[in-house]
Amino acid sequence: MCRSIKTLRRPGKAATGEEVQAAALQFVRKIGGYRVPSSVNQRAFSTAVDEVARASHKLLTSLKARKRSSA
């Protein structure tokens, strides 16, 4: 996968909106094969970035931390 997409789920630090949007942009660029889409594809590209960012934000806010067992 795209090496420039960094892990946004980190212990003790929530991802910022900018980080989520940047990761979504990189993901859509990789999937779509465009660094910068043509004007005819710009709307579809932008819509995809927004949808991926929303889904990513929803995922990150829904994940639960694993409970550590005490020994």
Compact overview of the structure:
Helices cover about 50% and strands about 0% of the residues. It contains 2 helices and no strands. It starts with 16 loop residues before the first helix and ends in a 9-residue tail after the last helix.
What's the oligomerization state?
A: single chain
Number of helices: 2
User: Mean of residue pLDDT?
Assistant: 87
Secondary-structure element sequence? HH
Q: Radius of gyration, Cα only, in angstroms? A: 15 Å
Q: Low-confidence stretches at least 5 residues in length (pLDDT < 50)?
A: none
Q: How much β-strand is present in the residues?
A: under 5%
Helix content: 40-55%
End-to-end distance: 38 Å
Query: Rough shape?
Result: elongated
Major sheet description: none
**Helix/sheet category:** mainly alpha
Number of strands: 0
Q: Which descriptors would you attach to this protein?
A:
mainly alpha; 71 residues
Task: Please provide a written account of the structure.
The chain is mainly α and 71 residues long. It is built from two helices and no strands. It has helices spanning 17-32, 42-62. Helix 1 (17-32) crosses helix 2 (42-62). The termini are far apart.
Question: What is the fold's blueprint, element by element?
Answer:
Blueprint: H1 17-32, H2 42-62
